[in-house]
Amino acid sequence: MKLIERQVFVTWYTPEEKMPPEDVFVVVTLSGTGPYVTYDHALMLAEWDSVEGWIIDGLNADTEEYEVHAWCDLEPYGG
């Protein structure tokens, strides 16, 4: 039996190093608080907008405070 190994590598960036392209979904790790919830290095889907900042899928920036620690491109998995 022949084993085929599949390896996909992704690179994590801090926002200080590099920002993702605008209007492209990426995976982020973030910490923060909101009504009835606390996030501690949670993985979320997000996109970056130079005017609005981080747009986090499922979070409301008006009621929740958070800090993005790092982000990773989804392109190696087909975007």
Describe it for me?
The chain is mostly beta strands and 79 residues long. Helices cover 0% and strands 47% of the residues. The chain has strands spanning 12-13, 26-34, 37-49, 53-56, 65-73. The radius of gyration is 15 Å and the shape is globular. 14% of the residues are buried.
Give short descriptive properties of this protein.
single chain; 5-stranded antiparallel β-sheet; 0% helix
Secondary-structure blueprint of this entry?
Layout: E1 12-13, E2 26-34, E3 37-49, E4 53-56, E5 65-73
Antiparallel strand pairs: 1-5, 2-3, 2-5, 3-4
How many individual β-strands? 5
Structural class: mainly beta
Task: Kindly state the percentage of residues in helix.
Answer: under 10%
Shape: globular
For the sheet with most strands, the description reads: 5 strands, antiparallel
Instruction: List segments where confidence is low: pLDDT < 50 over at least 5 consecutive residues.
Output: none
* SS summary, helix count: 0
Report strand order across the widest sheet.
Answer: 1-5-2-3-4
What is the mean pLDDT?
87
Task: Estimate what percentage of residues fall within beta strands.
Answer: over 45%
